[in-house]
Design a protein that fits this description.
Elements: H1 12-22, H2 43-67, E1 80-82, H3 96-103, E2 108-111, E3 114-117, E4 122-124, E5 129-132, E6 136-140, E7 152-154, E8 160-162, E9 169-172, E10 190-192, E11 202-204, E12 207-209, E13 212-214, H4 217-223, E14 236-240, E15 252-254, E16 257-259, E17 262-272, E18 280-282, E19 285-297, E20 303-310, E21 316-321, E22 327-334, E23 346-350, E24 358-362, E25 370-371, E26 377-380, E27 383-386, E28 420-430, E29 439-446, E30 451-461, E31 471-480, E32 486-495, E33 500-506, E34 509-515, E35 522-532, E36 536-540
Parallel strand pairs: 1-2, 2-5, 3-6, 4-7, 5-8, 6-9, 7-10, 8-12, 9-13, 10-14, 11-15, 12-16, 13-17, 14-17, 16-18, 17-19, 18-20, 19-20, 19-21, 20-22, 21-23, 22-24, 23-25, 24-26
Antiparallel strand pairs: 26-27, 28-35, 29-34, 29-36, 30-31, 30-35, 31-32, 33-34
Helix pairs in contact: 1-2
């Protein structure tokens, strides 16, 4: 029996009658009496029991009806909202207010597939969440606005911006960086930090995950064509900013996580400004970045791991300035050759005022890295550097301060296939000239084709007793292809910038030249170490 009623009030009279029958009190309607035939007197008893069972069923139904009554406290709460329910649509000229209204509900605001124009800035505050479905894009179009401030800004603890892979993301056609000082709060396609620089805010436990952050592809294309403008360098994709004025050194952008993201068409992919510490950047990809993939300025204890860099000629993958205790592991690179404008491609550049950093990875770049820090460790292609300068080949005890490790046994894999090695120390006398001029020091000849080579060159003036004593260090790298002429480039590792070095190439020969300053002519001590994978000859030009 099913009772179709939401209220038990209708059943109270019936409940009283059933209770009377069950307690033995008979009503005139409860028993059928057959006085004519005393033989059927037992029928009354059977009818009474039948009615009793019917009353039990009715009582059970009324109890169920009580339980079925509406309970406002048990309603299901939907954990997300659709931004289209707030008026957002790919056909709108601007969706800033509509999407912001969805975010402000405090629920997970979901953006369905489509390209949504955002002329303003979306703010994700504390415990707020914006999610981009597969195929959903937030785009800023240059034809609709000249706004250069962030498209999305995370401003509070536990703020989240997520997607469903690289087919969803945030992009802009306008410049997204280049500001300095407190104005850095307006840098980046996506920005993590306070809305205003004077705010004293700690922003912790924020997350950016599984999205693409894209700059202007037009700026990238211009960068690769004459006259090679570098406007794209000012485009920051993700910018981290601490709270309060930067000069005050207060507030922090802390304990954040950026993972599974693609950064493309930008100058600086990730810029961590001062006091943006203790953050994790992992499992990210970098494509067509021109200046830096990870640029840390006065931060500490950040982790940059498990990343891949592709098609980014001229980039410096890791750039650390006045930075401490940043660890970068498993950063793999295939960025490409020297940029069209002549900029070198480097694995990392660590400034002299940085300390205690560790970089381990596969820096397959066209030029050597720079490590001017006295206490930062770099291991790339199994070549190890600790202290000033870059390293190639074997490492000596002056590079690594340790009591247990025999550093002479740490060698580059290139040593296993090196066919020619040169190690020379000689004195070169430079003639004075005004203006100064480059003068030949030595010639390196690739006697066989299909080989690569690297030369570590140190130059020191022999006038140690005078105030003009100076020194510099250079790394010269190059190759000779099958049946092709030699190509070579020079990187300054450190030392006096007044001493210059260059190469002159003629077929299979590389002539290395030094230009001393006018005040530092005379005798110079030349020390060089060269290795090549083919047959080579070294000729001093005294």
């Amino acid at each position: 029996m099913t009772l179709q009623t939401p209220h038990a009030e209708l059943h109270r009279p019936m409940r009283r009658r059933c209770t009377a029958i069950l307690s033995g009190r008979r009503s005139s309607n409860a028993v059928l009496r057959h006085h004519a035939d005393n033989a059927n007197a037992g029928l009354e008893t059977h009818v009474t029991w039948a009615l009793a069972f019917m009353c039990l069923a009715l009582l059970h139904a009324t109890v169920n009806a009580d339980e079925m009554a509406p309970d406002e406290s048990s309603k299901t709460v939907i954990p997300y909202v659709n931004v289209m329910d707030f008026g957002a649509h790919p056909d709108n000229a601007d969706n800033t207010q509509q999407i912001q209204a969805a975010i402000n509900t405090g629920k997970k605001a979901v953006v369905p597939p489509g390209r949504y124009a955002v002329n303003g800035t979306l703010v994700i505050g504390g415990k707020e969440y914006l999610h981009l479905a597969h195929g959903a894009w937030l785009v800023r179009l240059a034809g609709r606005t000249d706004n250069t401030e962030p498209v999305v800004r995370l401003t509070g603890n536990f703020a989240r911006l997520t997607g469903e892979g690289h087919a969803s993301g945030v992009s802009t056609q306008n410049a997204s960086g280049g500001n300095s000082g407190d104005a850095v709060v307006n840098n980046g396609v996506v920005n993590v930090g306070p809305v205003r620089a004077e705010q004293y805010t700690n922003i912790n436990w924020w997350v950016i995950e599984s999205i693409c952050i894209s700059g202007s592809s037009a700026d990238w294309n211009a960068y690769n064509k004459p006259p090679y403008p570098d406007d794209v360098d000012r485009n920051e994709l993700l910018t981290l900013v601490c709270g309060a004025p930067l000069s005050a050194g207060r507030g922090s952008c802390y304990n954040g996580r950026v993972s599974g993201c693609l950064f493309r068409y930008g100058g600086i992919a990730i810029k961590a400004n001062p006091i943006c510490n203790g953050n994790l950047f992992t499992n990210n990809h970098f494509y067509r970045i021109t200046h830096s993939c990870y640029y840390s300025d006065r931060t500490t204890e950040n982790l940059f791991t498990n990343c891949f860099v592709h098609s980014a000629p001229g980039v410096t993958v890791i750039r650390l300035e006045n930075t401490g205790y940043n660890h970068c592991y498993g950063v793999m690179c295939e960025p490409g050759p020297t940029a069209a404008n002549g900029r070198y491609t480097r694995y990392c550049n660590v400034s002299a005022d940085s300390s205690q950093n560790v970089i381990v990875g596969h820096g397959n770049t066209g030029h050597s890295y720079i490590n001017e820090s006295k206490s930062s460790l770099i291991i790339s292609h199994a070549s190890l550097s600790l202290g000033l300068g870059a390293s190639f080949g074997s490492v000596n005890a002056r590079s690594v301060q340790t009591k247990e490790l025999v550093t002479e046994n740490i060698i580059s894999p290139l040593d296993t296939s090196t066919r020619t090695q040169h190690s020379e120390v000689f004195v070169k006398r430079f003639k004075p000239s005004q203006p100064t001029a480059f003068q030949d020091v030595f010639t390196f000849t690739c006697d066989t084709d299909t080989q690569v080579f690297m030369i570590e060159l140190s130059v020191a003036s022999g006038l140690a007793s005078t105030g003009n004593h100076s020194a510099a260090k250079f790394m010269i790298s190059g190759k000779r292809g099958s049946g092709k002429a030699v190509s070579a480039s020079v990187d300054r590792i450190g030392g006096d910038p007044a001493i210059k070095c260059r190469t002159r190439v003629d077929a299979n020969k590389v002539t290395v030249q030094i230009e001393p300053s006018y005040y530092m002519h005379g005798q110079f001590i030349i020390m060089l170490r060269a290795k090549s994978t083919g047959q080579s000859t070294l000729t001093n030009r005294l």
